[in-house]
Specification:
272 residues; alpha+beta; Glutaredoxin; two-stranded antiparallel ribbon; 8% strand; binds glutathione; GST N-terminal domain-containing protein; Glutathione_S-Trfase_N; Glutathione-S-Trfase_C_sf
Length: 272
């Protein structure tokens, strides 16, 4: 089927110019652009996400540590089928099921694997999200957003989450090491956690990458699939939400591997 009317994609509003910055909406934008589908973005201020989703009739899909549910984006409404979906992974599966003439995001027989990979990648990057401390929230809502986040985690103020000095530097080193472990998935080497991206292990990592430099930067080399967009979404979040010099630092890690992946996805970052 081809979509007759544009799909409505609900994304979180940034400051001007409006652009995607949060990782899960990035997954959906990448998916829509990859499939070449016609869509338009509805930008939603973060404090309004719950009321918009309630109006659309989708349930809250995340829970706080105390069990309280809360609403998130992305969400999607497809006027051609009247379907409304409020989760990035479910949106990807729906798009594959419905728009079979466009390239497939999740290849047959890999749905469970991709779901597990999605959770794994979210967990990995979320651990270091404090380093993305320049989220481009609009000034009109920034204070409300900061209060919302602080309240969720029992802090008195958003400032309590901010890292500085040695603690921040330590987190950078840990993040680089964690990505050094993760890059093994791309090098197609063993998954055992032996931390080869330690100071003494760097040469091992480089040796193991030999032979993969010439192929594309995706998990399967030249062939892009949804799993690559999941990682790409987190990299796009880092670019949008880190200090430029911090993002430049990430770009140098693992011999520039993440920069190569992010740059390869540039044609799919169009905002419609
Ligand atoms: N499982 C959901 C998670 C979506 C999610 O966590 N979205 C975040 C942005 S990346 C959000 O909307 N957060 C709003 C908030 O924290 O209030 C999905 O994949 O769509």
């Amino acid at each position: 089927m081809t979509s007759s009317k544009p799909i409505i994609f609900y994304d979180i509003a940034s400051n001007q110019p409006l652009r995607t910055f949060a990782p899960n909406p990035w997954k959906t934008r990448y998916a829509l652009n990859f499939k070449g589908l016609s869509y338009q973005t509805k930008w939603i201020d973060m404090p309004d996400i719950a009321s918009v989703r309630e109006k659309l009739g989708v349930a809250a899909n995340r829970t706080l540590p105390d069990g309280t549910p809360y609403h998130t984006l992305p969400a999607m409404q497809d006027p051609s089928t009247e379907k409304v979906i409020g989760d990035s992974f479910e949106i990807a599966l729906y798009l594959d099921r419905t728009y079979t003439d466009s390239p497939r995001l999740v290849h047959p027989g890999t749905t469970g694997l991709t779901a597990a990979f999605n959770a794994q990648v979210d967990g990995l990057f979320t651990k270091y999200v404090a380093l993305a401390d320049q989220m481009p929230h609009d000034a009109r809502v920034a204070e409300k957003v900061n209060d919302m986040i602080a309240k969720r985690f029992g802090a008195t103020a958003y400032e309590d989450f901010k890292l500085s000095g040695e603690a921040r530097e330590k987190m950078f080193v840990q993040f680089e090491n964690a990505l050094g472990e993760f890059v093994k998935a791309y090098y197609h080497v063993g998954g055992t956690t032996d931390y080869f991206w330690s100071e003494t292990g760097t040469a091992v990592a480089q040796a193991q990458n030999r032979g993969r430099e010439e192929s594309g930067p995706y998990l399967e080399g030249d062939e892009l699939m949804y799993a690559d967009l999941i990682v790409g979404a987190w990299l796009a979040m880092l670019e949008a939400s880190m200090k430029p010099e911090d993002w430049q630092r990430v770009r140098t890690w693992q011999d520039g591997f993440w920069a190569r992946l992010h740059d390869a996805l540039a044609p799919l970052r169009e905002i419609k």
